[in-house]
Amino acid sequence: MQNNFFDTRIEFLKGVGAARALLLNTELQIFTYSDLIQYYPFRYEDRTKFYRIFDLYEGMDAAQIKGRLHFFEKIGEGHKARLTGQFSDGTGTMELTWFQGVSFLEKKLRAGAEYVIYGKPAFFQGRPQMQHPEMELLSPDNEKGGYFQPVYGLTEKLKKRYVDSKVIATMQRNLLDLAYAQIRETLPENLRQKYRLVSKRDAVYNIHLPQSEAWLHQARRRLKFEELFYNQLRLIKQKLSRRIDYQGQVFKNTSLVSEFYKNHLPFDLTNAQKRVVKEIFEDMKSGKQMNRLLQGDVGSGKTIVAFICMLLAISNGCQACIIAPTEILADQHYQGLKEFAESLGVKIDKLTGSVRKKARTSIHEGLLDGSLKILVGTHAILEDIVQFQNLGFVVIDEQHRFGVAQRAKLWEKNSEIHPHILVMTATPIPRTLAMTLYGDLDVSVIDELPKGRKPIKTVHRYDSHRLNVFGFMRDEIKKGRQVYVVYPLIEESEKMDFKFLTDGYESIVRAFPEYHISIVHGKMKAADKDFEMQRFIKKETQIMVATTVIEVGVNVPNASIMVIESAERFGLAQLHQLRGRVGRGAEQSYCILMTDVKLSKDTRTRIDTMVRTTDGFEIADVDLQLRGPGDLSGTQQSGVVELLIADLAKDGEILRVARECAIAILEEDHELELPQNAMIKEQVENQKANTSNWARIS
Q: With contact defined as beta carbons under 8 Å apart, do 491 and 500 qualify?
């Protein structure tokens, strides 16, 4: 839809002007006709039906009524002033009230005139009333109703400057008068017919000025399909291009892998782990550079899968590294893999910010001469001084903690032939989000817990149950178990009545004088944090009081209880991550969610979901519904685009169809050279190209 007409600056549109244009620029990032026409409504008010006052009922979202404003009066002065009016339609009478814009409305309203009003009805002592209704004088244009009023997103500054949703709707109407003939088609006729999609012109017109509910449905469907189709086309094209353009080292020797399986693997892999190892091996043997995402719930055994794949690289004369976001997690990986590596005669070392200079020198030498085969570390691995002889395999753990530029540095650690990349996450990603965040990656999923693990029992308790919870903790500690108690805050907040860490620590000390207690939070020095963690790991302390610093990377199989204080303060993904810190051993584990009695609807949904299921993917889907994709994606990822109309929480089926369509087209015509794809190719070339193609890195 980009051409010279749509590049016209917004100030030249009737009803805008320089002052309003500046507001639209700064508040909504609308600069051109193109920006405005693609600023879609987020909902619609149904003005197709009129209600009678007699028919109003408690709980109605909104109602449109025709009637007469008999009188109105101002009550009070200054900022306490309000305006009240009496409105009737022959079936009943209702009170109208305004607390804002009183002086303006006093001059505008006409007693005795007929109006169409719209707003949310409420009842007081059985009598209907409406606060801040929209008021329009009854006219031939509005007395029949029959339309949907678009509602656009606004900012407080726009509202204060009297740019409301109706003003933007008027701008859209003025623009569509000029633009309708200029809107060009962006999907080929064969695709439109196959998926029964309306034209681009009709879609754009009806998204802003829907002629009916059916037209609105078709407009939404068409624009969502197009947006998701081109999003998927770009990602899949990047994936196919990478397979063609980027060669990978070929790993066929499996000697170390065979020895590990035969003599050193202490347990049987789950079927899911075996499947994932096979998928990764096929990539690493293919001659194409691997870029794979490994999803697996907390405790599903991703690290051992990564280690087996490292052995494949080492068997073929290469080195491997695993990078983690925190020293705690890096140390856990190092300690967990060291025994396995040394049993095979594979040299392994750890590089973090706290490693001393002398040890660093030895590590650098071992990497350069090839004797050091596996390096485990944090961001310290990214430093330019860290050079490998032949890096063949890179594992990035909790990859959402790393920016794309940081990941690019790992890619460049082997300039001859780029290493195979495996990015891992313990945060389950909903299917629709994975398609857009990681649509250019191959995805493997470990969807099975190791044998012998018992599902964690999760319960919800109110603060008034605290003594019972303490009693349960004491019973578990007597059995030799350990307990986490997690708080959302470090210091007291005057605005929020939540338990905070230091107060919580003191109350735990008072309640459990017979036991030793550790405390860990983000403001502690790394050495102090590590000291407290080690005390807990060695069972020198029975209770660990902490903030979410333990969310990632703490593995204490003996810990069987996770108490999460003020659980209403945490998102679902974070609650699930924290719960995953227990249930690491063979004993039954518990997660206790402590909250205040007063909970919002969304919070109650989060808590109920946690109690009902331990399935990370089901939890992720609920989280997507509650929070939307923007909050879930975290650091900007390769496939993330700012979707203008599609909703990943609701449009999973449209996304699936759009993706299948894009795959089918590109598999037949990767370069979009066939005549039937000319329109698609033109649209792809017109879309703004990314300044950097981070997709090849993940």
A: yes
Cβ atoms of 579 and 619 closer than 8 Å: no
Instruction: Provide the token pair at 586.
Output: 């063979």
The DSSP letter of residue 694 is G
In the sheet that holds 114-119, the strands lie side by side as: 121-124, 127-131, 93-98, 82-88, 63-75, 114-119, 134-137
Q: What is 6-32 written as a DSSP string?
A: TTSBGGGSTTTHHHHHHHHHHHH---B
Q: Residue written as tokens 């009803």?
A: 15
The amino acid sitting at 558 is N
CA distance 528 to 239: 44
Burial of residue 563 (CB within 10 Å: 0-12, 13-18, 19+) is buried
Give the bridge partners for 137, in sequence order.
115
Q: How far apart are CA 95 and CA 71, in angstroms?
A: 10
Top-confidence residue, 4 or 229:
229
Nearest to 424 by CA among 251, 273, 316: 273
Q: Around Cβ 453, how many Cβ atoms within 10 Å?
A: 16
**Contact of 365 with 387, CB cutoff 8 Å:** no
List C-alpha distances in Å: 238 to 246, 250, 351, 663: 11, 22, 33, 12
Residue 154 dihedral angles phi and psi, to the nearest 5°:
-130, 165
| pLDDT, tens only, 219-267 | 999 999 999 999 899 888 888 877 777 788 999 999 999 999 999 988 8
For the record, the structure tokens of 104 come out as 């303006």
Distance CA 595, CA 599 (A): 8
Strand 559-564 relative to strand 543-546, pairing:
unpaired
Cα atoms found within 13 Å of the Cα of residue 354, Cβ hemisphere only:
11
Average of per-residue pLDDT across 603-616 = 91
Whether this model's pTM surpasses 0.90: no
Calculate what percentage of the chain has a pLDDT beyond 70: 92
Helix axes 271-285, 302-315, angle to 10 degrees: 30
Nearest CA to 549 out of 523, 511, 510 is that of 523
Place of tokens 């049993």: 343
* pLDDT of 679 higher than 90: yes
Q: Are strands 148-151 and 43-46 parallel, antiparallel or unpaired?
A: antiparallel
Mean pLDDT of the chain: 87
Alpha carbon distance 576, 588 (integer Å) = 17
User: Tokens 């109920």 appear where?
Assistant: 608
Cβ within 8 Å of residue 241, ≥6 positions away: none
* Residue 695 predicted with pLDDT over 50: no
Closest CA to 8 of 37, 42, 31: 31
Report d(CA 205, CA 226) in Å as an integer. Answer: 15
Sign of CA pseudo-dihedral 650, 652, 657, 660: positive
Q: How large is the C-alpha radius of gyration of the chain?
A: 31
State how far the Cα of 411 lies from the Cα of 403, in Å rounded to an integer: 13
pLDDT in tens, 424-481: 987 777 777 777 766 667 888 888 877 777 889 999 999 899 999 999 999 999 999 9
Residues 6 or more apart in contact with residue 507 via CB below 8 angstroms: none
Q: Work out whether the CA dihedral 684, 688, 691, 694 comes out positive or negative.
A: negative
Beta strand pairing status for 517-520 and 543-546? parallel
Helices (H), 482-562: 501-511, 526-537
Q: CA 474, 479, 480, 482: dihedral to nearest 10 degrees?
A: -40
Based on the number of CB atoms within 10 Å of its own CB, is 288 exposed (0-12), middle (13-18) or buried (19 or more)? middle
Amino acid 340 reads F
Token readout for 83 is 């305006």
Residues 43-88 have pLDDT tens digits of: 998 888 899 999 999 889 899 999 999 999 999 888 888 999 999 9
Residue 668 amino acid letter:
E
Backbone φ and ψ of 220, nearest 5°:
-60, -45
